[in-house]
Amino acid sequence: MLNPQTKSFSTDKIEESNLLSVVLLTQNSLTPTYQPPDQVISSVPIEISKEVIVMHYNFTDDDAKAQTILYSGEHETNQNRGQRIVHVRVKGDFAYAVRKGIEASVGKFILVMDADSPYSREIVPELIRELIEHPHLIIVASRFVKGAHIQRMPLVQSVMRKGARAIAKYGLKIKNVEDPTSSCFAFSRSVLNNINFEGKGKEALLEILVKVNTNKSSNIAVKEIPIKQPDTSIAKKANFARILNYSGAVWDLYRYGKASKRINEKDIAEQKKHRSILFLSKAGRFFTVGASGLLVNYVASFLLTTLVPGIWYIHATLFGIIISITSNFLLNKIWTFEDKDFSPKHFFKQYSLFMVLCALGAVIQLSLVYAFVEYSHIQYAVSLIMAVAIASLSNFLLNKKITFGEKIWE
Questions:
Q1: Residues 172, 254: contact at Cβ < 8 Å?
Q2: Sign of the C-alpha dihedral, residues 385, 386, 390, 393?
Q3: pTM for the full model?
Q4: Dihedrals phi, psi of 343, to nearest 5 degrees
Q5: In whole angstroms, what is the distance from residue 410 CA to residue 408 CA?
Q6: Architecture per CATH, 11-238
């Protein structure tokens, strides 16, 4: 975090930040037009370890032959402690170069920047400050938020840029970002953990935003900071190839969103089906245990009256009920609800709740039988079946929720 008095990063935050990887994108074979790597490194606070991966993209075969010695693989040009500069050439477009640059980097934090675009010198430390302070956000250098100042551009290009934003907002549902096509942004590497970043075309940020937005397991928000660009240069001209490239990227991402939605809907349906099967399975086990309890009750009561001389049959029946409730509790705990916690406090709490709810179930059953026979004039045999069914179901649901702490429908 930046200290407002000293203008330096506090030590505790720096220790958490590990290494910063700056991925610089350029189409020039020697050095970027506006953001040379040495200048970018000097913009990063000295307290932070950093590396710069310079990605020379759209590299043709002729350029590759001409620069074989200078850019052979990863060419390290800066041996200073805590920093390095690596040059990598790729034949792919901007987004592909971003992907390859991220793969070549090792930092926990990643800053992506189009090195052929003019940015103020303050943009790098601002992005880093926001990223370290908000590591779970994607930080975007935005041309369209309050306080931004961008270079002059022709009217046609301005209209096209607004159209591109509208397509991203309404066509791809990226409604929380004003500049989804920015080529300067920063994020923690963990942002990419749950998405498949392919790096197609020129729109790296747009692809990341769409896929993060589509992935329900991700909870990534975006923060935009204003860009300040000088008026001394004219913006890059938009050509027909650029329009086709953007249209193709939007179409691919739109289809990705549709496919992901179908997958999510299928997953939801499968989850509902799984929950239904699990619920019915536990209900079947619970009622099976209940049926076994009747047998345990009868056998225990009969054996007590047979083996214990002089025992009153009511006492034998009472002991039989207690034994059957205990056996029901143990079987339900181990088999029906698969609860493995047998710590004394937890066990006796559950056992007490089970006894109380069983007593409540008996009261419900007796009350319903009385109400059906006396007030609804239903035959006793039918009333008994209805009362047992309702009391048993309520007993299962109450024990599932209260005794064993499970959700009702799972």
A1: yes
A2: positive
A3: 0.53
A4: -65, 140
A5: 6
A6: Alpha-Beta Complex (3.90)
